Amino acid sequence: MSSVDNDLYLNAAGQSALLQWAEDHRRAFPWRETRDPWQVLVSEVMLQQTQAARVVERFERFVERWPDPSCLALEPLAEVLRFWQGLGYPRRAKNLHLAAELIVSRFSGKVPSTIDDLLSLPGVGQYTARAVMVFAYEETVGVVDTNVGRLLARWSGSSMKPNQAQQVADALVAPSRSWEWNQGLFDLAATVCLKRGPRCASCPVQNWCVWSIDGCPEPDPAVGSAGVSATQARFAESDRDYRGRILRALEIPDQSETRPGRSTLAEEAGLSADLTRFDRLCLGLERDGLLTREGVSWRLGN
User: Fold this and answer.
1) Does the residue 249 lie in any domain?
2) What is the helix (H) or strand (E) element at residue 225, kind and residue range?
3) In a domain, 227, yes or no
4) DSSP string, 159-193
5) Does the pLDDT value for residue 7 go beyond 50?
6) Domain's final residue, options 108, 135, 162
7) How far, CA to CA in Å, does 262 sit from each of 21, 221, 265, 283?
8) In this structure, what are the phi and psi dihedrals at residue 213, rounded to the nearest 5 degrees?
9) According to the model, what pLDDT value does residue 275 have?
10) Could you list the active site residues?
11) Out of 40-54, 133-147, 237-251, which region has the weakest mean confidence (pLDDT)?
């Protein structure tokens, strides 16, 4: 059944039911206590493919240390990379640092308030731009991440293409309640409409969900639908894992200290038996601007 033709697809009563549930079950996170655009942007970058529980403490420390884009822009990238260790995907730290520099140079130190301007920032895609528009500026747009994509597919009873999912998400936003609405979708997906074992009996909009009404048949319409991520490859001993190990081995508090050479760094990263792979990963990290070769050694940053 198409989401466009489905008369049951979240009418005003469904919106009201979800908003009431969202108010009663809202999860507490520090980034939900602010409308500061910089803090919202920082939180969204940190939350990309990282669980919220891991982000909470680091987010609070980050915005205390770098409370605005100008503070971060003045900080050497190496310091930001050191801080980022443990959050995964260090390229996000570099992009956030570059975004801070651009916000200062192009936008007078203020996080832009239009989707097009936000998309001009390094590392900011459609999801992050829309999240800032909603959670900082409270614009009436939908925010589609992997969890919301799952909701939309199940509610409609069919898989969606990216443009369709975004159009539906935008159309469903409760008027003048975009912040509450989108946070409610996140909470519903995280606690009720789970990827495996959805708790349909606890869902406030079960009566508007085509997949639930039909008895949750296989295949799940969320599988392969827009925004819904596939199963990730094993992290241990992957290139991502070893890239992180190389960067951690270069975390020297005092840059005047002797930095490890090739053999030492490879050994500390667990790649002494595969120097070809080590060299390839170092070259990739150099291309990404995450480390710089200096003679026979490397240092963090560019």
Assistant:
1) yes
2) none
3) no
4) ---HHHHHHHHHHHSPTT-HHHHHHHHHHHHHHTS
5) no
6) 135
7) 56, 49, 5, 12
8) -60, -35
9) 82
10) 44
11) 237-251
